[in-house]
């Protein structure tokens, strides 16, 4: 396979997008294509502001996914249901992460990134209001499911947006920031959630109001600052503007051609499914990331259960060991940034194009660290053993998850580029569907197997040739 220009160090080539043209307008093939401001040409300071704001949107949504876990004991008693039923508040929200990208990812490839990103995010914000006032469990669970569907917009689109304006080396650092946000949000959720839930003057409803405040601040800032970043749509808009500028009022104006619902379903929504079915590397990486992502969401039950039930700690104190995962996620982000600058970028410059497999050494490292941390956590859980080793094990769990997730996502983006949104939609669908099931199994698993063996089960769970036969990857072999 010859070197593809999209893989070279430089801006991506914009694809042609059809424009509806009035039949009376003569063709003018000799017209010079209008220029437009490429997102790659934005100053670095603005790129980093966009990167942080987009990641913050993801953090707010993922914070909302886990903050409900702090209400499980309270809501199960208030509504007279089992803990498994109450945990549906987490599982249905994460299931929404699986369903939402089926629409948001493909839509972003013909409507641009901003419309699906902010439409989904602001509807997600509004859904926090009924969660904050309703006292009916079925209604709450429906709102949680819908919240996950609409909140999936930033979760599924942000890492693809980074490919719109970052070169490959810097994209690895940006993806590390995104991945840190994906894990910082759900790590802080149980900590802050338990503080408001156990506060008599606030109560569990305030988990929704807290989520609304956080999301509202970052969402408004991002809406005012983050521009459209998808090259093909920007080129299309520039062409329309140039053509309309040369027309008289009596001639009317050009308009963008939007696909019919049938075309949207047949061409765009089916694309992630086809990629998942026919792309062997996407299948493998998606399955691996799904297991890792499921382990993260299972820890939302495992950590509080281990320290409150196993060690008899107060619920508010029992969630603080989550901070060890937060520290390790930040450390992993720094490690990924260092690797991108000192190893990935020099190889990229020397070769002249991207080799996605350069992302994989950190995945291999994480695949060793994560199961080691799980076994360590499980077998240091006895109340007769100091809690310090178990908290240290959280550092290994968080670091392993971070290294695997960050570099797997960057690897997928490096392979598929302008099809990355569809590839990540497929990845997000599977990993979120798996993660939705893990918390439901947690209560029975930990109560019947005990902390040591239940966590060990997770540890046991735990290329180039595949990419060569890819249908959608423009990567040189």
From TrEMBL:
Keywords: Membrane, Transmembrane, Transmembrane helix. Residues 1-38 are annotated as: Disordered. Gene3D superfamilies: MFS general substrate transporter like domains (1.20.1250.20). Pfam families: MFS_1 (PF07690). Residues 50-477 form the Major facilitator superfamily (MFS) profile domain. PROSITE patterns: MFS. It is found in: Membrane. It is a multi-pass membrane protein. The keyword Transmembrane applies. The chain crosses the membrane at residues 52-73, 85-103, 115-133, 139-163, 175-196, 208-227, 281-300, 320-339, 360-379, 391-413. Its main location: membrane. The keyword Amino-acid biosynthesis does not apply. This is Major facilitator superfamily (MFS) profile domain-containing protein.
């Amino acid at each position: 396979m010859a070197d593809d220009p999209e893989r070279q160090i430089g801006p991506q080539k914009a694809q042609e997008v059809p424009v509806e043209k009035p039949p009376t307008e003569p063709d003018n093939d000799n017209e010079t294509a209008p220029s437009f401001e490429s997102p790659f040409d934005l100053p670095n300071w603005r790129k980093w502001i966009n990167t942080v704001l987009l990641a913050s949107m993801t953090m707010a949504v993922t914070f909302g996914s886990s903050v409900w876990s702090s209400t499980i004991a309270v809501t199960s008693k208030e509504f007279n249901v089992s803990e498994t039923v109450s945990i549906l508040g987490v599982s249905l929200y994460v299931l929404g992460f699986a369903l939402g990208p089926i629409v948001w990812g493909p839509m972003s490839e013909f409507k641009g990134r901003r419309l699906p990103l902010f439409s989904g995010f602001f509807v997600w914000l509004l859904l926090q209001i009924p969660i904050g006032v309703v006292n009916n469990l079925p209604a709450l669970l429906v709102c949680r499911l819908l919240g996950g569907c609409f909140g999936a917009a930033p979760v599924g689109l942000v890492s693809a947006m980074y490919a719109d304006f970052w070169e490959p080396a810097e994209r690895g650092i940006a993806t590390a920031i995104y991945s840190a946000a994906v894990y910082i949000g759900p790590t802080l959720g149980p900590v802050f959630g338990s503080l408001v839930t156990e506060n008599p003057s606030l109560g569990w409803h305030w988990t929704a109001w807290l989520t609304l405040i956080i999301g509202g601040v970052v969402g408004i800032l991002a809406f005012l600052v983050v521009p459209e970043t998808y090259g093909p749509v920007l080129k299309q808009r520039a062409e329309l503007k140039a053509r309309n500028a040369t027309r008289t009022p009596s001639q009317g104006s050009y308009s963008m051609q939007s696909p019919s619902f049938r075309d949207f379903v047949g061409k765009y929504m089916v694309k992630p499914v086809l990629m998942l079915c026919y792309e062997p590397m996407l299948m493998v990486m998606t399955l691996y990331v799904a297991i890792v992502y499921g382990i993260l969401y299972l820890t939302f039950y495992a950590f509080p259960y281990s320290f409150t039930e196993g060690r008899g700690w107060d619920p508010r104190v029992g969630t603080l060991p989550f901070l060890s995962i937060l520290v390790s996620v930040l450390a992993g982000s720094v490690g990924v940034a260092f690797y991108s600058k000192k190893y990935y970028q020099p190889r990229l410059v020397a070769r002249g194009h991207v080799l996605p497999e350069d992302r994989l050494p950190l995945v291999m490292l994480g695949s060793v660290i994560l199961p080691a941390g799980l076994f360590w956590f499980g077998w240091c859980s006895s109340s007769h053993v100091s809690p310090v080793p178990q908290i240290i094990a959280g550092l290994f769990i968080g670091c392993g998850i971070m290294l695997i997730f960050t570099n797997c996502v960057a690897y997928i983006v490096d392979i598929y580029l302008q099809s990355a949104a569809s590839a990540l939609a497929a990845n997000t669908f599977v990993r979120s569907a798996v993660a939705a099931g893990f918390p439901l199994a947690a209560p029975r698993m930990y109560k019947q197997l005990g902390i040591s063996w239940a966590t060990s089960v997770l540890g046991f769970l735990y290329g180039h040739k595949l990419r060569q036969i890819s249908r959608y990857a423009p990567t040189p072999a």
